[in-house]
Specification:
Elements: E1 3-5, E2 11-13, E3 21-25, E4 31-36, E5 43-47, E6 52-56, E7 62-67, E8 73-80, E9 85-91, E10 108-114, E11 120-125, E12 137-142, E13 148-152, E14 157-161, E15 167-172, E16 183-189, E17 193-198, E18 203-208, E19 216-217, E20 227-234, E21 237-242, E22 244-245, E23 248-249, E24 252-257, E25 266-272, E26 278-284, E27 287-292, H1 298-302, E28 311-319
């Protein structure tokens, strides 16, 4: 790995400075989504393998936040601080402890919990919205009214779930199809639109909340193949976290900036992660942290090729 500038100009050395990593013991967790608790400062992570959500204190103590037998894999997660909610995408990739062969790429749902207590508020089954498709609810975001938007990486769709749990297809289009996983990272922009990444071909879409059918493709200097998660650092700065897709091993985090309201963007900085299968990130105290869950090793471990991992890392990649 190489030494690269952090997003605020402060040098960060990936390979030589272990203090840039936060390492945690959590057997077979394989985290995917990561958020920050707005009152406690804890990291919150969803587990692909365990189908639960954990919280990690600034001192490194790991506790279970959500234990719900209905969850197969806890994929994308989102804190809705204004309403005190935690939203969790439930999908079945076939690698979770509660996976069922008949439900692989079939069961998708949005589970909503009280952030303070972990008590369930809604469990919204999304499986019937695209009944003739394979389905995988991946990432999600929330708008200022509390509506959730969920990317389905296989069914070429974005779902909308209202605060009272009413679900619908917000947008579907053949442009969202491709090889393997497609629509993935998603963020709500304060100017009233979504920014949505397509992992398989590295596209980035701008989707108006009031007219989703008028979506457009953000002009990028190159395709960001493998984009998994997005972090909107500010209105004009987007962090795109890539791993592997379509035969391309990118393993790079890109800082994107715009001066035309995301009609186009330029690459202002990069950060080399190495082969850790970085997924998505979060802001805490003005710093950007990314989950290194190494999900690419889980399939082999379940086949007995390598031991299941008993720890994972969170990487600080720079400042807001």
């Amino acid at each position: 790995m190489i030494s690269t500038p952090a997003f605020a100009g402060k040098a960060v050395t990936l390979a030589k400075d272990d203090s840039a990593f936060l390492a945690y013991d959590a057997p077979s967790l394989y985290p995917e989504g990561i958020e920050t608790h707005p009152t406690t400062g804890e990291f919150i992570l969803g587990s692909i393998r365990k189908g639960k959500v954990v919280a990690i204190s600034p001192e490194g103590k790991v506790r279970d936040l959500i234990q719900d037998e209905r969850l197969r894999s806890a994929v994308g997660i989102r804190v809705d601080a204004e309403r005190g909610r935690l939203l969790v995408n439930n999908s079945d990739y076939g690698v979770a402890e509660r996976s069922a062969p008949s439900d692989k790429f079939d069961t998708v749902a949005l589970a909503i919990y009280d952030l303070a207590t972990g008590e369930p508020l809604h469990y919204v089954d999304l499986s019937g919205l695209r009944p003739d498709e394979k389905r995988f609810a991946n990432d999600l975001t929330v708008d200022e009214d509390g509506n959730a938007y969920v990317t389905d990486s296989l069914a070429a769709a974005i779902y909308k779930v209202t605060p009272d749990g009413q679900a619908s297809v917000f947008l579907t289009n053949e442009r969202f199809r491709g090889e393997g996983f497609n629509l993935n990272g998603i963020q709500t922009h304060p100017e009233g639109y979504l920014l949505v990444a397509k992992k398989s071909d590295g596209s980035l879409f701008k989707v108006p909340l009031d007219a989703p059918e008028n979506f457009s493709e953000v002009k990028l200097p190159k395709a960001l193949i493998g984009t998994d998660g997005l972090v909107l650092a500010d209105a004009n700065t987007l962090v795109a976290i890539t791993n592997v897709a379509s035969g391309v091993q990118s393993d790079t985090i890109f800082k994107l900036t715009t001066n035309d309201d995301w009609e186009s963007a330029k690459i202002a900085d990069t950060f080399d992660t190495g082969n850790v299968y970085a997924t998505t990130g979060t802001l805490r105290d003005g710093k950007i942290f990314v989950s290194y869950g190494r999900l690419n090793t889980l399939g082999g471990s379940l086949k007995g090729e390598t031991p299941l991992l008993d720890s994972f890392r969170i990487q600080e990649i720079g400042s807001k």
